[in-house]
Amino acid sequence: MIKVNELHKSFGDNQVLKGITTEIGAQEVVCVIGPSGSGKSTFLRCLNRLEDITSGEVIIDGTNIADKSVNINRYRQDVGMVFQHFNLFPHKSVLENITLAPKKLGKGQKAELNEKAMQLLDKVGLREKANAYPSSLSGGQKQRVAIARALAMNPKIMLFDEPTSALDPELVGDVLAVMKDLANEGMTMVVVTHEMGFAKEVGDRVFFMDEGLVLEEGTPEEVFTHTKHERTQAFLSKIL
Amino acid sequence: MVINPQAFIDVIPFLIDGLWITLYITIFGVAIGCVIGTLFGLMSISRFRVVRFIAVTYVEIVRGTPLLAQIFFIHLGIPALIGHTFDPYITGVAIIGINSGAYIAEIVRGGVNSIDKGQMEAGRSLGLNSRQTMRYIIWPQALKVMIPPFGNQFVISLKDTSLLSSIAVAELMYSGRQYMTITFSAFETMFMVCIFYLIITIPASLLLRYLERRIDKS
After folding, report:
1. Would you call B142 an interface residue with chain A, using a CB distance cutoff of 8 Å?
2. Which of B125, B144, B146 to mutate against chain A (most A CBs within 10 Å)?
3. A40 with A160: CB under 8 angstroms?
4. DSSP letter, residue A55
5. Cβ <8 Å between B122 and A105
6. 20 to 30 Å CA-CA from B144: which of A140, A194, B86, B190?
7. What is the radius of gyration, based on Cα positions, of chain A?
């Protein structure tokens, strides 16, 4: 589903990604872990080209999105993204946050899209908040709305950029539960996270990134228990 | 010197005529300024360096020169060059438009820049193109931020129109001066001129404060 080939990304002289090559299959849940500054978020953001790709290929469903001639807007509709800081639209209600993009992109009739949004709100447990504004929600609720908003476009892939890092600890569980449901439904997911519990339990594979490279990848069991690299070990020993 | 109480009253009809012209020039001028300001404000955050350069140059020239110099340049300088004079009222509206446009451009730039980068990313990640994201997500939020400084600029431009008296635009200040030269009632006239400006600017400031409070709440 996602094929990454020699992906390089530089910000000026600063080389952040130094040639990543990997493959992510349909319905797979990949958790990306690693120290800060290792390029995890940049890697994720290259998968929907929120960051311009310096060189290499990112092939999604057979299309190389590093190619500038690709209509990236069309392609992004199939790749949902959830941000660390939610990035809900503060001037829109919860329902409008969810329906804005599908409405403007002509994904269906208004009534039908509203109905679908309500179903998504049910799914994330926030039906009663449909008419609330983001400022009145807790962090955990905001993030669940953000997930519903991304799902409203019927994406084939969901990218999560540290979705629980900005949350109070007691709110993390609700968000992870929603993500777990999503994984169980067979969504292809790439999750940059510091939640090792989630990675172990839900992840099919774990990538350990360090200094712009995927240093180690494997099942959670392989990475967490039978760690091959010293640096992975050092990182894990610090956080576990 | 003795104050002539009657002069406070007698000057009023003159000033009312002038006040209409002041309002007329301010409203049309600032309306043009909004168009110019939006255009140049958006240009100043463009991806393209040349476009940004044009916008910044315009803003710096206008902000870096006194309004009176701009008035004389456009009313006297340009006609001397091209050999054609313009109606001072049209020049007046144009000058207020060009001048407020530069300041409004800065307000627009500041307003758009004040919106978190994550908003653009969220819109783009959903598949909206940059124009749609701008229109439905960034712009409505930026407009809210822009209302207070815009109101402020409106009041400044209104007061700036007084400088147009130097090119015989019969606005409020000019009307007062006319009356003063006829009657020599300098104190009474200028006192009333200030009162007339305040009649407009104080309610405008109050309205602004009210709007600011409402925006803070939402």
Report:
1. no
2. B125
3. no
4. E
5. no
6. A140
7. 18
For chain A, say whether B66 makes contact (Cβ under 8 Å). no
B109 within 8 A of B63, measured Cβ to Cβ: no
Copy the structure tokens of residue B171: 């606005």
User: Where are the alpha helices (H) located in chain B, listed in sequence order?
Assistant: 5-10, 12-43, 49-64, 67-72, 78-82, 88-113, 117-125, 130-133, 139-160, 172-183, 186-217
Q: Which two tokens stand for residue A191?
A: 């999750």
Asked if A123 is an interface residue toward chain B (Cβ–Cβ < 8 A), one would say no
The ipTM assigned to this model is: 0.92
Place of tokens 């709100």: A121
Cα of A187 to nearest chain B Cα, Å: 17
DSSP 8-state symbol, B161 = G
* pLDDT tens readout for residues A161-186: 999 999 999 999 999 999 999 999 99
Residue B180, CA distances (Å) to A109, B17, B18, B176 in order:
68, 15, 14, 6
Instruction: Lay out the sheet containing A2-11: strands in order across.
Output: A14-24, A2-11, A55-60, A63-64
Structure tokens at A190: 């790439």
| B116 and A CB contact within 8 Å | yes
B97 to B70, B71, B158: CA distances (angstroms): 12, 12, 11
Of A191, A222, A140, nearest in space to A34 by CA? A191
Judged by CB atoms closer than 8 Å, whether chains meet at A153 and B116 is answered as no
Residues A8 and A51: their CA atoms lie apart, in Å, by 11
- For residue B187, the 8-state DSSP code is H
Of chain B, the percentage scoring pLDDT greater than 90 comes to: 87
Question: What residue has token string 């809900």?
Answer: A88
The pTM of the full predicted model, rounded to 2 decimals, is 0.86
Pull the structure tokens for residue B156: 């400044």
Inter-chain CB proximity A73 and B129 less than 8 Å: yes
How confident is the model over A27-81, as pLDDT tens digits? Answer: 999 999 999 999 999 999 999 999 999 999 999 998 999 998 999 999 999 999 9
